[in-house]
Amino acid sequence: MSAYRDGPASSMFWPLSFDGTVSLEELARNPDISADLRKALPFAHSGSCVAWGVPFEIGHPVLLRDQPVTVAISQTAAQWFVFLHTSDSRSLAADANGFISPMRGIGQLGERAADYVLIYEDGSEGRAEIRRRHQVGSFQFRWGDKCLQAVTAKKPRPLSLNTREQTRLIKDTTAHNPNVQWGERQTQLVFEDPTPFHNFVWAFKNPHPEKPVKGIRFEPVCGTLLISGVAAGNARSMPLRWEKRRKALLRMSSKLSHDSARRLSLLEHIQLDLGQVISMAPRLVYPTDDWEQTRQNLEPGTMFDEVIVEYAAHEEAAFHMQDGSRIPVQDLEECPSQGEFSLEPIAPADQRVILRVVEVGTKKLLPVKLHVHGSSGEYLAPLDRMRNPNPEWFENYSPDFFHGNHLSTYISGLSTIDLPLGQVFLEITKGFEIKPIRRTFEITRETEQITVEIEKALHWRENGWVTADTHVHFLSPSTAMLEGAAEGVNVINLLASQWGELMTNVGDFDGHTTFGTKAAGGDGEFLVRVGTENRQHVLGHISLLGYSGSMILPLCSGGPDESAIGDPVDVLLTEWARQCRQQGGLVVLPHFPDPRLENAATIILQEADAIELYPGKDAYRGVDPYSLSDWYRYLNNGYLLPAVAGTDKQAARYAGRAVGAIRTYVKIPDHQEFSYETWMDAVRTGHTFVTYGPLMDFTVEGKPMGSRLNMPSSGGTIDVSWQVASVIVPMTTVQLVVNGEIRETRALRSDQDAGTWRVRISKSSWVALLVRAKYDDKPEIIAAHSSPVMIHVEGSEFFAAADALTILDQIDGAMAYVDTMGTRAEAKRHKEMRLVLESAYRRLHNRMHNMGFDHTHSVGTHHSEHN
Hints:
With about 850 residues, this protein is mainly beta. About 15% of the residues lie in helices and about 35% in strands.
């Protein structure tokens, strides 16, 4: 038994003491109640309690069963009398076949259980019927048997998305209440706690509030009731009924720390009596005055002394501040500063508006990424999107985008959204070829629809270029389709995989369907194909795209943290790659170069089709020179691996990781139609570039990226031509990379530019284009990089001895891991894998010897040529 308080008590209500018929301890031994009720009584409320803002003093309850019970109370005149009560279970009579008639449900809907009678000082009475599932419910009830005119005694309360914080919040003084699991936590609320005992709160409107009441008579009709507490009070309307959700701005005299701001969901600074605080978050400050001139995804500032409080409450509820002060909800309009805190209302979002985003000229609806906020910086989500999205790993099922504190969501081009009157601020983005839009709208009661037109600024798609993200997790195919279309990404590769004991997207894989094709009911412009990312935590990861037939298994090997504990290392990346190619797929080495080990053998054995550059956790980091340096090692030794881009997006994981945040542009040959198969073929040719925004075209002697050229032994001069453009991030510099070194540099116009170079080549070389760019408030980044053009000069081999040795060391390391630390597969399988790695080692090793390069060996790879 516990004194449960679900929040502060309202000053408009007071408890009424009475002497009932039995103590809870005595009741637990009473044979006249059900065994289930006796068992549940240790979880009943007792002592000083607060339920829905109404205070109760629970001493000796009234057990109402066969005889009327009258209790005396101190004379009280009030508009409302509030009862805390419950019913014992009522069995249903079934016939021999198990059928029930008449069928009222287990809750016995509408059955008259009792009458409650107010006894006035003048001897008159006020009577109310108590019917089951109206004024009272059962202490244990079937899901769906809600009360119609009463509420369970514990009001709904918010949950923190943070696991540790929610654990502390959800535990109450009863040992029965378990922690809420992570899946349920995504609802961000708890209504009915899983407890064996429920009380119900029912408010009776006194028909004669001017008359003092001196007693209450409880008259049984059928079944058993337990009346634990009674309160009285005055309110203009039903005290248990809350009004629509609202927001207010809380100003504090001192600033919150960053840690406190993260823990605002604990609601320690402010509570409500006849209502509930839903959430608290530091106010975000956007560039209101020049909103339309600022760039997309610009993170707002944070005010740590101003907090947006979201709440739902009765019209006469009051906020209870941490310093002990009270602020009535109805006084917010004229609320003066009260000590450390002050509150002012934020205009409610109650104007329902249809938002349409269309293409200029055609008026065709276009999927886009959408952000809307109000004048106080409050995020405004469409009706079918989360108002408070969860950024954690695999814990968000709404198509949302997090860019730090700047929130957006994806819409199909048509959306319904509730907006406040006054100014609202809208941002729309769609890929790298459409200039982002920031608009300010004045919302009035006449605003029923907003239409925004967008127009392409760049036309790379019309010239045969298609975009792709090679690496996406957790989304459903339909959500991936929406996000891809909204971001202007033509191909989304959704990868099934394994994470310890967790399998993801495996049910979406069928080995043949490309979602979005005309045959599958789409328009053929935006495609989703489910492949797999097969992984080993030391040897590496490999993305197997577009293959047909059965899923390539196992998805992961070798134990934590990729596969399950005890899984052996029984397959190599190189073997997965071979099987993918045999099944018609495309092999990509993801988030290159990490994990940095067996991918060397896969490349040397020429079983990989491309390497994948990705953004990491920082959306403004650009193409990482570390990744480029690793890639350049292989190019320097003649291994042509085109560059593709994948975000490794994992639903909401990582702020700023949108589908296609870094993306691949691939040129489809003029004589071919775009399809998933022609996209794979184009990647294999190497006619690609990766980008964070700038678009490029780049030729050497008129030949595109991915080409191979031959020159005589004397070498010669090559003509390099390029054009670049960007509407997303201002460009600064273009550079020509030759054999991993910057050969030419030129400053760029920020939006578009073109040029040529003539470059002398004297030995076999690879050539690529690099574009740098910079937002005004961020460091300069490598924002785009082409795949190379390989130029073979007769009599000169692609060979960089120091780089070749580092590659050989990686293969040596893979053998060392398989031989020593990796959980051993059965002997035959281990030997087969060892032979694959040895073949890669020998292939590169023999080439190095043929080039006359001497080198040291580990004990496991020593051979007679060095004796």
